[in-house]
Amino acid sequence: MQLDAKQFKRDRAAALENKPLRRNLERAMTTIRGRRNERFSQFVDGEALQWIGHAIKRNALANLPDLLEQLEEQLTSRGIQVHWAETTGDANRIVKDIAKRRGVGLVIKGKSMVSEEMELNDYLAGHGIEALEADLGEFIVQLAGEPPSHLVAPAVHLSRQEIAVLFHDELGEEYTEDIQAMTALARRVLREKFQQAGMGVTGVNFAVAETGTIALVENEGNGRMCTTVPPVHVALMGIEKVIPRLDEMSPLIRSLTASATGQPISTYFNWLSSPRRPGEKDGPEEVHLVILDNGRSSIYADEELRETLDCIRCGACLNICPVYSRIGGHAYSTVYMGPIGKILTPQLAGLEKGGHLAGASTLCGACYEVCPVKIPIPDLLLRLRREGVQPTPAGIATLKGAGAKASLGEAMVWKGWRVVHNRPALYKLMTRLLGFAGRTLPKRMGPLREWSATRDLPKAANRSLHHLLRDRSNAWEAGKIRSDSE
Amino acid sequence: MAASNARENILNRLRKARAGLPAPPPPDPLADRKWLERQPPITDPAGRFVQEQEAVGSQVRRVASWEALGDVVPPWLAELKVSSVITGTEPRLNPLRERLEAAAGLELHTYDRPIEEQREEVFSVDCGITTSHAAIADTGSVILIPSPAEPRLLSLAVPVHLVLVEAGRIFPTLLDFMDSGEYQADPPTNLVLVSGASRTADIELTLAIGVHGPRELLVALIG
Ligand code: SF4
């Protein structure tokens, strides 16, 4: 995936012109938003639930290093092997080494955004190990050779007809557009694979420090399969997934599923705490947890930006976003898309590569409204925009590529703006000139060309509001008009 | 070697970053409890459990007692054209197993050896029957804690899962179960909350049942 501003501009323009994509997305986003809203409307004070989630995550992060150690101690005491990875390269090597040691040729995967971040499938393929996605949506996009376009519904950009063609072409099965039949087909194909796979790989939704519990939220049963059938289970998580106590999962799971799909709870909520014990007849012989940093500890160092790490990946901010719901997930060219992607990616990849994403927002605030952990996404977008042109001293140490977007031209414009606004006489002259220029400047050329290509240029008035008011008050004093209250 | 460095590096970075910053006030540990108390009360946990399970398409039948299972289960399975059943070695199921054994057209299997020796059998049976640890009313969830007597795949590899739930073991909410401390006392290898049959909405957000787990969840509510 290529991450740069020009590419993003091209891709989003193409997405906007892509009629089938727009149709698929609009239908899906309307449905999924409706489900979320319906569930929240059944709560007495759903917003209070969001603030509970916020407080839990804030507290968990404040104690992050201690919680990670406690988690490790608990897991290790029951035989789960814990690995720490500073980079995605480290994490990939850890997974590959386990696979090689166990002679694994086929890995079966549950949904994991961290594995997308690692580009694990490609890495393993390079070492002769096949990785197969088992979540239906991930299975579909893997067949299509695409990355997921949504955090929760990876194939949401595709219509059933497109998927039907894909299944027909790639799996050599009889063509059907029947969704139940396509699901049954995937079940049949993957059943075999679960039994052949030497390793199951999954993500982690919550890791509970006090009990040493790895919790997995899912509807399909692929998570259960991946963590039960293959002899080895490897769970992947970012450092931010740990929470102190078991009972904190109660409000978090309620909020997560309500926000993601509108369900009261997911069909399966798995709690895992050890490999197969003596006497037990199934379950993996080995369980590993890989804890990935990959830039998160730098984000952590900035008190404001740290809130990015509160995210529980529910996807609600994508569904509500006027930008995401029109262009979909692929145009961003990022692992994490939509509003959360716009704040997370520039911090993980550096502002010089991902800084343009922070600009692609209307700052309408809808994402903040729906976020189950109340991440102030609009504030963080503004912060990142600011960091792009003018790093704040506190941010210098932490934010990769701060100041990368600073340009001489832009700096001059703002300097000029400041000068003009501090001198009344200059300001007056400016507004007069603008009124004149607005009528005479060519619109399809010069600096305005790009902006006005898709928009109507507002007409600058002949006389400024300032002037009009002055005339009015002069007239009023002269007794020509009377105010209403008299 | 590299791995242990990574651990120290990450923890050191986090500790250093945290040092200068004020700790936020710890959250109110009773916040979720207080929030739940503001929701409409759950006066009849069993009734609510049934309602939530049915809302996600599960079949629920009420059974007077463990002894009465033998009268209810075989005809139920026959209605669904189940021709083979598997259970673990849980002693409470022995009376039911006798009745299943006697039922016409029903093959009875036992999951009593490691999966490595029984894989084909476990993955080819129509229906698995298990007990449950408890249940939750407001989310309509069954709590399974698989054990040597009732392994994990009994409720997963089969197209139909019949689960036995005791009405007296229904907690109003997940928080009530967590507050009981039953899990924390000795975390089991695996606990899973099951709220309906396996499902997906990955194609056009349209519900499809039976992706990787059971297509049908049957709940016998005892008592
Ligand atoms: S930022 Fe909030 S709304 Fe968006 S995915 Fe994360 S938790 Fe959900």
Gist of the model:
The complex is a heterodimer of chains A (486) and B (223). Chain A is α/β, with parallel strands linked by helices. Chain A has helices at 5-17, 19-42, 46-62, 64-77, 88-101, 113-118, 120-126, 136-144, 160-171, 179-196, 222-228, 249-260, 296-300, 316-320, 324-327, 338-349, 351-359, 366-370, 377-389, 393-396, 408-422, 424-440, 449-452, 465-477; strands at 81-85, 106-109, 130-133, 199-202, 206-208, 213-218, 232-238, 242-243, 268-272, 286-292.
Question: Can you walk me through this structure?
Answer:
The complex is a heterodimer of chains A (486) and B (223). Chain A is an alpha/beta fold and 486 residues long. In chain A, the strands form 2 sheets. Chain A has a 6-stranded parallel beta sheet with strand order 1-10-7-4-2-3, sandwiched between helices. In chain A, strands 8-5-6-9 form a 4-stranded mixed beta sheet. In chain A, α16 packs antiparallel against α17, α16 packs parallel to α19 and α21 packs across α22. The radius of gyration of chain A is 27 Å and the shape is globular. Chain B is α/β, with parallel strands linked by helices. Chain B has 8 helices and 12 strands. In chain B, the strands form 3 sheets. A 6-stranded parallel beta sheet of chain B has the order 1-12-7-4-2-3, with helices on both faces. Chain B has a 4-stranded mixed beta sheet with strand order 8-5-6-9. In chain B, β2, α5 and β3 form a beta-alpha-beta unit. The longest helix of chain B has 18 residues. The model of chain B has no long low-confidence stretch (mean pLDDT 95). The interface between A and B is large, with 102 and 81 residues.
